[in-house]
Amino acid sequence: MTMALAHQVSIPIDPADIDFMGHVNNASYLKWVQEAVLSHWQSNAPVEAVAGHLWVALKHEITYRKPAFLDDQVIATVILEKVHGASAFYETIIRRGEDVLAEVKSRWCCLDATTRRPARLTRSVIERFFGIEEQTC
User: Fold this and answer.
1) InterPro entries this protein is in (predicted)?
2) I want to staple 28 with a disulfide (CB 3.0 to 4.6 A). Which of 4, 17, 19, 75 is the partner?
3) 7-128 carries CATH number 3.10.129.10
4) What is the rounded CA–CA span in Å between residue 80 and residue 89?
5) CB atoms within 10 A of CB 65
C-alpha cells in the first residue's frame, strides 16, 4: 500500500487537563488520542461506514517527550499505519509547534455498530485512508 494520509486535529487544553504540577495530566493524552483517531475515521470514511462501525481502543503505548501547559497550541497528527483483519494500527504525534510532546502507537478494533462484534472494513474503505480512489470504468 502507499503512504497513509496524515490527519491533523487541533487539541484544546481545558483547565481540567492540568494536574497538581501545573501541566497537562498524562491521562489527558489518551483522551486526545481517542478524539484524534475518531476524527480521522469520521473525516475519511464514507458516511455509511461511519454509521455502520464503531471503534474501541485495544492498546496504547505512549512516549511522553515534553509537558504541555494550559495556553499551549497543540496539534495531534494521526496516521493509519496498517489495517489487519478488524484491527487498525495508528501513530499519533502530539506537538506544540515544532516540539514533539508525545508519540503514541495504538491498536483499535473495528466493531459492527449493530452486533458489536469485530468487523473487517472493505478494501475500498481502507484505501480512502491511503489516498487511493476507487477506479471506475
Assistant:
1) 4-hydroxybenzoyl-CoA_TE, HotDog_dom_sf
2) 17
3) yes
4) 6
5) 13
Q: Which residues pair with 79 in a beta bridge?
A: 91
What is the spatial distance between Cα 58 and Cα 88, in angstroms, rounded to a whole number? 10
Q: Is the entire prediction scored with pTM above 0.85?
A: yes
8 Å CB contact between 109 and 87: yes
Which residue from 37, 32, 108, 111 is spatially nearest to 64, judged by alpha carbons? Answer: 32
Confidence class for position 131, pLDDT limits 50, 70, 90: confident
Cell digits of residue 79: 496516521
Q: What is residue 100's three-state secondary structure? A: strand
Strand order in the sheet with 99-112: 7-11, 74-84, 87-96, 99-112, 53-64
Per residue in 42-86, pLDDT (tens digit) is 999 999 999 999 999 999 999 999 999 999 999 999 999 999 999
**Over 80: is that where the pLDDT of 11 sits?**
yes
Distance CA 34, CA 69 (A): 20
Domain locations along the chain: 7-128
CA distances from 121 to 30, 42, 61 (A): 24, 14, 24
